[in-house]
Design goal:
Length: 88
């Protein structure tokens, strides 16, 4: 299980039971994050989030972070937190 911090930038794709989001990580890297749940993931544009999940490699889309849980964080908490974005 990995914990990463990032800023939601946009919804890339949405289908029943799954949403694909684009996040900008602390440090500037952009990642694709997949949330397999209801469309009610309350991701707010430019909000900071702590994401818990795991890295997976998709044959079609490359490395993606599969979100198990998420929570909105304060910007100060995000800046102080160590970025746990290990690459498997």
């Amino acid at each position: 299980m990995a914990i990463i911090f990032g800023r939601f930038t946009k919804l890339i794709h949405e289908q029943p039971g799954q949403c694909v989001h684009l996040f900008r990580m602390h440090g500037g890297d952009m990642i694709r994050a997949v949330y397999a749940g209801s469309q009610e993931a309350q991701m707010l544009h430019k909000a900071q989030f702590q994401l818990t999940g795991e890295w997976k490699k998709s044959p079609a889309y490359g490395r993606q972070f599969i979100i198990n849980t998420y929570k909105k964080t304060a910007v100060t908490q995000h800046k102080k937190a160590r970025n746990f974005d290990e690459y498997d």
